[in-house]
Write a structure and sequence with these properties.
With about 475 residues, this protein is of the alpha/beta class. The protein is about 40% helix and about 20% strand. The strands form five sheets. It has a seven-stranded mixed sheet with strand order 13-14-15-12-11-16-17, sandwiched between helices. Helix 13 links the parallel strand 14 and strand 15. Helix 1 packs parallel to helix 8, helix 4 packs across helix 5 and helix 10 packs across helix 11. It binds 1,4-dihydronicotinamide adenine dinucleotide and magnesium ion. 1,4-dihydronicotinamide adenine dinucleotide binds next to helix 8, helix 9 and helix 12.
Length: about 475
């Protein structure tokens, strides 16, 4: 890959001439250098995106934008193997997961392509003397600041609806995972996306990212990442003021009742808690369980977790390493802390003995976790599950709702009335019943409380990038 940004349809060196290295977390070896973007590169990219809002892109009918997104989807599908390998080397995830992520990217583009010509306005009944109606117009230049856990997936989750809505975009991938975004730019160029519509500037959050959020020509910001950075971005957006969509992670609890299907649950948790090495905003990280089955749940989850294989991304085991040395230390620190607090370690808790290089952690399960401990309150973002027994349903609910986070909650029970009553009372943006990771590009997702603002995916995802103009006519 080249150490250049993609701006205004061209590959350009960073204005400062500086670069940085992206590394393979499976081996800790450098992969290549990429451009270290700063405010000057961001300014160039945003201006290009602003010009593109008034160029040939603006002349396309919504259905034509949809066709172009379909072409992009097809070309990405054709490059699936190449993209999957890039993603696997850059962030360590197993190849099969990276391939699945590319499938998700294609599906997201196709969904949004179909939505491009269906974002209808309304007529407003003001009475016989008037006609009043709304136009749905693109907001303009959009900024996309994405994390490293699903690098291309997160980029496309917001880019696809922004383009469907007729906006242009500047994408700033995470410093840990810039490669698939550069590949996306190459493919966009090859399929004829007009220049300036998609721009990619690589670099660090405090440099390129911050400059992007502060640029006056940026009209909307979409961000996925930590709560702390989300708050900074919202403060920067106040200068616009410009709307933000913030997806800020979670500490997602699953409530398990005595009548739950425990076979299904144990199997589902292999992915829900440990998939992508737990580096998923909507991962299950707390299990709140009825006391009579607490022991059995612990045994089953420990047995399932022990069967998960860990290895370098290219070896395609069940899970790979964490993305960086920082994430590795953070997760190991959480594990140590839970151990010291008195958590009963059922499985894992270490670096696998056969993997002395790379940022690996074994799937880990703690039982007898007190809801006040750090491991039960903070986002670990690693393959670590904490089990807590509750006394009564009300206690389960109050433990689940006691945190600032509010992204996802889950319920396993065969009593669907109980589940639906709880679904109403759980303070989260999504509730999943008898399954985990339910949804896809069609279902809106996002958090409440500290977990963020706004919804992505589905038609609400496209509305993020449209503004309403009201036109009133006196007859
Ligand atoms: P981060 O939130 O700092 O980084 C995410 C993105 O924001 C990256 O592209 C980064 O370059 C950019 N960024 C950072 N500071 C910025 C700023 N001031 N202005 C504009 N952009 C900025 O997250 P980080 O440090 O990679 O991970 C820390 C923790 O955040 C993780 O351990 C995890 O708990 C959480 N996280 C949650 C994610 C989610 O899916 N909700 C994804 C990644 C991290
Ligand atoms: Mg990397």
């Amino acid at each position: 890959m080249r150490a250049e940004h993609f701006i205004d349809g061209e590959w350009v060196r960073p204005a400062s001439g500086r670069t940085f290295v992206t590394i393979d977390p499976s081996t800790e070896e450098p992969i290549c250098e990429v451009g270290r973007g700063d405010a000057a590169d961001i300014d160039r990219a945003v201006r290009a995106a602003d010009r593109a809002m008034h160029g040939p892109w603006a002349e396309l009918a919504p259905a034509e934008r949809g066709s172009l997104l379909c072409k992009l989807a097809a070309a990405i599908g054709e490059a699936k193997e190449e993209i999957a390998r890039l993603e696997t080397v850059d962030v360590g995830k197993p190849l099969k997961e990276s391939r699945g992520d590319v499938d998700g990217v294609v599906a997201t583009l196709v969904y949004n392509a179909g939505a491009a010509d269906k974002m209808e306005g309304a007529t407003i009944p003001l009475g016989p003397g008037f006609i009043d109606f709304t136009l749905m117009e693109p907001v303009g230049v959009t900024a996309h600041i994405v994390p490293w856990n699903f690098p291309l997936g997160m980029a496309i989750r917001s880019l696809a609806p922004a383009l469907a809505a007729g906006c242009t975009a500047v994408l700033k991938p995470a410093e840990q995972s810039p490669l698939s975004a550069l590949k996306l730019a190459e493919i966009a160029e090859a399929v004829g996306v007009p220049k300036g519509v998609i721009n990619v500037v690589t670099g660090y959050g405090e440099e390129a990212g911050e400059a992007l959020t502060r640029h006056p020509l940026v009209r909307s910001i979409s961000f996925t990442g930590s709560v702390e950075t989300g708050r900074r971005i919202m403060a920067a957006a106040a200068s616009g003021p410009k709307p933000v969509v913030l997806e800020l992670g979670g500490k997602n609890a699953l409530l398990v009742f005595e009548d739950a299907d425990l076979d299904r649950l144990a199997e589902d948790m292999a992915d829900a808690a440990f998939g992508n090495s737990g580096q998923v905003c909507s991962a299950c990280s707390r299990i709140l369980v009825a006391p009579r089955i607490a022991q059995e749940i612990g045994e089953r989850l420990a047995a399932r977790a022990a069967r998960i294989t860990v290895g370098p991304g290219l070896e395609d085991r069940d899970i790979g390493p964490l993305v960086s040395v920082e994430q590795h230390s953070k997760v190991m620190d959480h594990i140590e802390d839970a151990r010291r607090a008195g958590g009963r370690l059922l499985v894992g808790g270490r670096r696998p003995v056969h993997l002395q290089r790379g940022f690996f952690v074994e799937p880990t399960v703690f039982a007898d976790v007190d809801p006040g401990w750090r491991i039960a309150r903070e986002e670990v973002f690693g393959p670590v599950l904490a089990i807590t027994a509750f006394d009564r349903e009300e206690d389960a609910l109050s433990i689940a709702n006691s945190l600032g986070y509010g992204l996802v909650a889950g319920i396993y029970t065969r009593d669907i009335s109980r589940a639906l009553k709880l679904a109403r009372r759980l303070e989260t943006g999504s509730v999943w019943i008898n399954g985990w990771f339910i949804g896809g590009q069609q279902a809106p997702t996002g958090g409440i409380k500290d977990s963020g603002i706004g919804r992505e995916r589905g038609l609400p995802g496209v509305r993020n990038y449209l503004q309403i103009k009201n036109v009133g006519v006196r007859l």
